[in-house]
Each structure stands twice: as C-alpha cells, then as structure tokens.
Write a structure and sequence with these properties.
Blueprint lengths: L1 H12 L7 H8 L1 H17 L1 E2 L2 E2 H10 L23 H4 L15
Antiparallel strand pairs: 1-2
Length: 105
Amino acid sequence: MVILALLFMIVDIWNLRGWTGFFNTFGVNALFTYVLAGMLTKTLLIIKIGEQSLYNWIFTHVCSPLFEKPEAGEPHVPFNAGDGNLGPWIYPLPQENNHPALKWI
C-alpha cells in the first residue's frame, strides 16, 4: 500500500510521467497482456527438460523450495539463497499457542 501511495504521489500529484510509458502501454492494453501471459504459459508447457515441462521444472526447483520448511536440525534462515526458505519470512506464525492471533483456532 505504501508503494501504491508513493506511485500515486509521484505520477498524479507531482506529474512525473516520463518513465511511465511502458506501464501506460500495457495498462491500457490489458487484453494484449492477457494473451501474452497465455502464450508464455503454453510455451513453457511445450519446452521439455528431461521428462517434465519447463513450467513444472520452474515450479519444482524455483517456486516450491521457497516455502518449504527446513528439515529437523537444520538452521532456519529466512530468505537464504542456500535453502530458499521464504514462507516463514513472509508470514511467520507464533510459536506459542496462547498468542492472540490464534484465539479463533
């Protein structure tokens, strides 16, 4: 929300629009962006790496490891390039059961 408010201030209030050409083009042409996203997805599904598609490979090797929990005994270092563990860093859960956020559970 802060970034959106900052962009609103820069573009609409201060009227600094020289750098917004790319966003204006694709923001107005939402149908083009939608079609481009579909074409990219289908292309990634066609390209094969071994037995799986590039789409599945990206999910398995890039997206999925970001939210895996570390194994027992491994140190937990959020956003570590080594283990790629982003899940607890983005939305950490309290460890104690008497936390106010868990009252509804």
